[in-house]
Amino acid sequence: MENVKKINNELTVAGQVTLEQLQQAVSEGYKSVLNLRSPDEQGFWSDEPQQVEALGLDYVNMPVKVETLTEEQTTEILKQIDELPKPALIHCGKQMRAGAMALMNIATRQGMVPEQAFHKAGEIGFDCSAYPKMKEFFEQYVSKHSKAN
What we know:
The model has no long low-confidence stretch (mean pLDDT 94). Helix 2 links the parallel strand 3 and strand 4. 46% of the residues lie in helices and 13% in strands. The protein has 6 helices and 5 strands.
């Protein structure tokens, strides 16, 4: 699939997906889709839930806006990621929110410190410094919620 980054064997992130990508995800064994886009975003695919479920995948939409993201909302999203049938495809507009949530999930569950999580992000191809507000939130959240603490 294009515009996709595999985080590990359970989580893959993408920008906005197409029907063809969802069909490919099914053929590759994916079990669920988590959409982090808001219905008011340009390019939001309004019948995505029906399309995803018609393919036999579980579907969840939990809109995330970086400007209004809270610790409580993040905790709910990470809990949802834990509960999704795996492997799961997490997407947003340009992978930034999806990548951040997937990496925060892994970092907090594996007891990583923020520097380790940023290193992992770089290995996968994410430039965390391109989104300073998200990077700051990520660092604070992981520092507070990582199992290492």
